[in-house]
Amino acid sequence: MKATIAQLDASQLPGEWAALREHVSRERSDLVLLPEMCFAPWFCTAPVYDETVWRAALSAHERWLARLPELGAPIIIGTAPRNEDGKRYNVAYAWNADRGLQWTHRKTYLPNDDGYWEANWYDRAPIEFQTFCLGELSVGVSICTEIWFMQHAREYGQRGIHLLLNPRSTPAFSNDKWLAGGRTAAVVAGAFCLSSNHAGRADHVQLGGAGWICDPDGVVLAVTDAGRPFISLDLDLARAESAKSAYPRYVDDSPL
Predict the structure, then answer these.
(1) Distance of alpha carbon 170 from alpha carbon 142, whole angstroms
(2) Is 79 exposed, middle or buried (0-12, 13-18, 19+ CB in 10 A)?
(3) Please, which residues bridge with residue 192 across strands?
(4) Contacts (Cβ under 8 Å, ≥6 apart) of 215
């Protein structure tokens, strides 16, 4: 399958959306991964929750989610702010040309420090890392910080995922660290690890861009930058299937 990663600047969204549409059409992408909550400026730079800002982010995402079919890709995955059962969450979605929008996973590991006051803005979800299938494609999502909790990459791999997807919003100074995490998660899961990230500025935070694609052995296949904000690659899903029986995935970690 052909998968597309992206870095997007929310302050330039209309123009970047048009450019992404053109890229997806030209590349004939099967799947597009969008950054974490990418249809509104990154608002977690503020340490205090603001209901007006939250509602504006909800509205912006509702409008843009309705436009997902414009990209022309059969599968689009990202995250959005969402109110559920009286709580606020950051929720992953999968849009499919046949079934429309599905909500798949709520973010459970929330940072709370400078530029990333997420635990102040929305609720921590229960620990539920479930795979989902789109046709024969098996996917696991780890939203941003969740990539560092490698036990879930291991669990995803044991359930046979082809793709481990990491939509994120991370700062430029930490790009090397995040890529190291993505490479490690790919090896642990025995799956292709893909990430898309915010770019530009959010208040005082310089967002990092640098989306990536890593193969099941942790080899970096592509990294986005300002000159190449969108990258599409053909991925051989059979490699993710065969990786499950190779080191270190085959090692028995069941309780004695």
Answers:
(1) 14
(2) buried
(3) 163
(4) 186, 192, 221, 239
| Among 235, 208, 207, residue whose Cα is nearest residue 221 | 235
Neighbours of 70 (CB within 10 A): 13
Helices (H), the chain: 13-27, 51-65, 118-121, 150-158, 175-189, 237-243
Whether pTM exceeds 0.70: yes
Find the distance separating the first CA and the last CA of the chain, reported in whole Å.
39
Contacts of 123 (CB under 8 A, 6+ apart): 87, 88, 89
How far apart are alpha carbons 97 and 99 in whole angstroms? 6
Q: How far, CA to CA in Å, does 37 sit from each of 89, 90, 234?
A: 11, 8, 26
Q: What is the 3-state secondary structure (H, E, C) of 109-161?
A: CCCCECCECHHHHCCCCCCCCCCEEECCEEEEECCHHHHHCHHHHHHHHHCCC
SS3 assignment, position 54: helix
One digit per residue, the tens of pLDDT, for the chain of length 256 reads 999 999 999 999 999 999 999 999 999 999 999 999 999 999 999 999 999 999 999 999 999 999 999 999 999 999 999 999 999 999 999 999 899 999 999 999 999 999 999 999 999 999 999 999 999 999 999 999 999 999 999 999 999 999 999 999 999 999 999 999 999 999 999 999 999 999 999 999 999 999 999 999 999 999 999 999 999 999 999 999 999 999 999 999 999 9
Encoded amino acid at 57, one letter: A
Do you know the residue count of the chain? 256
